[in-house]
Amino acid sequence: MGKVFVCDHPLIQHKLTYIRDKETKTKDFRQLVDEVAMLMAYEITRDLSLTDVEVKTPVATANCKVISGRMLGLVPILRAGLGMTDGILKLHPTAKVGHVGLYRDPESLQPVEYYTKLPTDVQERELIVIDPMLATGGSANAAIQVLKNNDCSQMKLMCLIASPEGVKAVQEEHPDVDIYVAAIDSHLNEKGYIIPGLGDAGDRLFGTK
Ligand SMILES: O=P(O)(O)OC[C@H]1O[C@H](OP(=O)(O)OP(=O)(O)O)[C@H](O)[C@@H]1O
Ligand SMILES: O=c1cc[nH]c(=O)[nH]1
Ligand SMILES: [Mg+2]
Prior knowledge:
EC number: 2.4.2.9
Mean pLDDT: 97
Bound molecules: 1-O-pyrophosphono-5-O-phosphono-alpha-D-ribofuranose, uracil, magnesium ion
Shape: globular
InterPro entries: PRTase-like (IPR029057), PRTase_dom (IPR000836), Upp_B (IPR034332), UPRT (IPR005765), UPRTase/APRTase (IPR050054)
Strand content: 25-35%
GO molecular function, one term: uracil phosphoribosyltransferase activity
Largest sheet: 9 strands, mixed
Function: Catalyzes the conversion of uracil and 5-phospho-alpha-D-ribose 1-diphosphate (PRPP) to UMP and diphosphate.
Organism: Chengkuizengella axinellae
Helix content: 25-40%
C-alpha cells in the first residue's frame, strides 16, 4: 500500500492556515499556494539520489554531490494543479511538465477527461502528479491511470489537502503511489467538498467565482 506523508513543517502549516481562510483573496491565495508547493517540493524530493563529483574551488579540489538518476517530471491536473507547478519549478527548473485535464462532474462527482499532453520521454522520468485537492480521489486516480496507460511507472501524488476518503481511494486503486499532503482533513460533505478544506481550489486560484 502507498505511504502517506503529511508535510508538517511549521512554514507549510502556517501558510496553509491563510490559504484556508475565506477572507484570503485571489492574489494572496495564489502566492501562498505557490510558496507551499515550493516548500512541499523540498520535502518530496528528499529521496532523490546523489552521485559523487569533484569540483575545483579556487583553492583546492572538493568532493561534492550532484543529483543523479531519473529526471523529474511534473504533471499538474488542470486547472487547479497549475497553481502549484511554478513553485516546484523554482526548485527544479529543469523538470518537464505534462498536463492532464480533468474536471469533476458536479452531479456524479466522476472525473471527466478533456486533455492530455505529456513530455515525449515521460516514461523515463520520476513524476509528481500535482493537485491541491484530493477529495473523492476520482480525479487523482484517473490522472494516475492516464500516466500508467502511457507506460509511466514511477510517480508520487502531491496535494495540499486530502480527505480520508480520497487517501483510501488512491491507496486502493494505485497502491504503488505514495501520497504527500500538507493536511488530511475530517471528511467530505454531501457535495464532495473537503471539510473544513479551503473551498473550490480552482475558483479561488483563478478568481472564477
Ligand atoms: O478528488 P475529486 O473528488 O476528484 O476532487 C478533486 C478535484 O476537484 C478539483 O478540480 P475541479 O473538478 O474543480 O476542476 P478545476 O481544477 O478545473 O477547478 C480539484 O482540483 C481536483 O482535481
Ligand atoms: O473541497 C474540494 C473538493 C473538490 N475540489 C475542490 O476544489 N475542493
Ligand atoms: Mg474547481
